[in-house]
Write a sequence for this structure.
């Protein structure tokens, strides 16, 4: 066959005119399969479709006769090229396809099993979690191990299994705060460098670390936070994909040194062009954003530090259990912290470039319910986890129209109502909402 009908991959013209998965040539986050559909029945002495690197389960064997062919079960988070070679297939009259076709695509990261409670570890004292824009989840935890009790780990995007991670010693003093941040820095070849950082703050010392694409990044004495987001549109594109906030009050990325005004507790990342440091000072939430203006006169700069006002004159507690979430659009930001009044405050800020734009808003809940939030990696959606009498709830909100709307309950985590359940976090696993929680010293995971 020729352009009048034959076989191709990716819906290409000539030797094809067929539909196919993945979505398109050069697309990312595709299902772990590829299929070619020919415009008429064809035959082939060998498999009509090849996948490079070789992987997956073919839908048939050679010799082939039919109108479609696929490979399923491809590894996650991998860049593939699927091809139909010129002359590979023939129609009923013996005409072969005169031209070949190919498609290059990236598979979405593999995820843990859904629909059941998974036990991750049985020796966890405290933990925090972050999900990058592709839904790959990173954890930092303190364990009961006597040697190297700190564990910094993540779910492997290729297999969905929890990695062995990085072990570390416990700094001196009592644990004050534990946080992690993660980002996916996508490249032109469709691959992602997954950068992640953690912060362990103890009463006598703060310890930070980072990993970029599996490579451990050293921390200098006094560093207070790793910044795992890549360069903005006006930054040097060859600059390192991970920066650091130093104890001297500077953001350092390669040869770039920029002064900052905030000693951060956490990062709120919306994109490489818009992220901010979040902290607490004198009972007040404080944030400082680094933003980039893109276009003909592109520039990146730190905005002045600002306070995030709490409603009704409340002040932030000394141990705030700070939780923050940006949105995929970059137009909403959510801050949650405990107050000195035993309440937990939730503050939504709308920073819109389009209309309608909702007014900023705040809500109060009981500190004992412990709402924690995360981006849902879609639109202006956020997810949360909080504990009610029936157990830990997985909740969801769309901040598009309102900063003060109610949370919708997506589900209650099985077996999470007991008093031994003391901590919980929401996270996006790919496009699925999930919850991690601590039951005694057992860290569990549930993805509905």
């Amino acid at each position: 066959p020729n352009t009048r009908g034959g076989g191709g991959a990716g819906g290409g013209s000539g030797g094809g005119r067929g539909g196919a998965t993945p979505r398109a040539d050069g697309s990312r986050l595709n299902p772990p399969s590829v299929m070619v559909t020919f415009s008429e029945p064809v035959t082939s002495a060998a498999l009509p479709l090849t996948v490079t690197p070789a992987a997956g389960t073919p839908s048939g064997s050679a010799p082939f006769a039919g109108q479609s062919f696929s490979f399923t079960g491809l590894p996650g988070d991998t860049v593939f090229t699927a091809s139909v070679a010129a002359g590979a297939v023939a129609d009923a009259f013996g005409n072969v396809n005169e031209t070949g076709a190919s498609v290059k695509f990236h598979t979405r990261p593999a995820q843990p099993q859904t629909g059941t409670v998974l036990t991750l570890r049985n020796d966890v004292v405290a933990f925090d979690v972050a999900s990058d824009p592709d839904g790959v989840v990173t954890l930092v935890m303190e364990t009961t191990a006597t040697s190297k009790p700190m564990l910094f780990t993540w779910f492997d995007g290729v297999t969905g299994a929890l990695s062995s991670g990085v072990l570390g010693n416990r700094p001196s003093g009592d644990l004050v705060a534990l946080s992690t941040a993660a980002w996916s820095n996508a490249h032109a070849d469709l691959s992602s460098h997954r950068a992640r950082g953690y912060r362990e703050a103890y009463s006598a010392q703060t310890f930070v670390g980072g990993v970029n694409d599996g490579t451990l990044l050293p921390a200098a004495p006094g560093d207070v936070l790793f910044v795992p987001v890549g360069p903005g549109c006006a930054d040097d594109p060859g600059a390192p994909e991970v920066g650091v906030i130093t104890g001297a009050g500077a953001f350092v990325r390669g040869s770039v040194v920029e002064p900052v005004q905030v000693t951060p507790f956490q990062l709120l990342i919306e994109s490489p062009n818009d992220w901010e440091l979040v902290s607490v000072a004198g009972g007040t939430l404080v944030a400082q954003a680094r933003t980039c203006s893109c276009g003909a006169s592109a520039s990146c700069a730190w905005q002045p530090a600002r306070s995030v006002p709490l409603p009704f004159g409340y002040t932030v507690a000394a141990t705030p259990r700070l939780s923050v979430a940006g949105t995929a659009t970059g137009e909403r930001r959510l801050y949650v912290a405990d107050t000195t009044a035993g309440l937990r405050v939730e503050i939504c800020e709308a920073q819109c470039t389009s209309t309608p734009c909702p007014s900023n808003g705040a809500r109060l809940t009981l500190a004992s319910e412990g709402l924690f939030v995360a981006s849902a990696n879609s639109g202006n959606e956020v997810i949360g986890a909080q504990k009610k009498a029936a157990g830990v709830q997985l909740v969801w909100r769309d901040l598009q129209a309102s900063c003060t709307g109610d949370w919708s309950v997506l589900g209650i985590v099985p077996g999470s109502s007991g008093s031994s359940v003391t901590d919980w976090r929401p996270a996006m696993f790919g496009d699925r909402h999930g919850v991690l929680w601590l039951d005694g010293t057992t860290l569990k995971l549930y993805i509905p």
Remarks:
- The first strand starts at residue 20 and ends at 21.
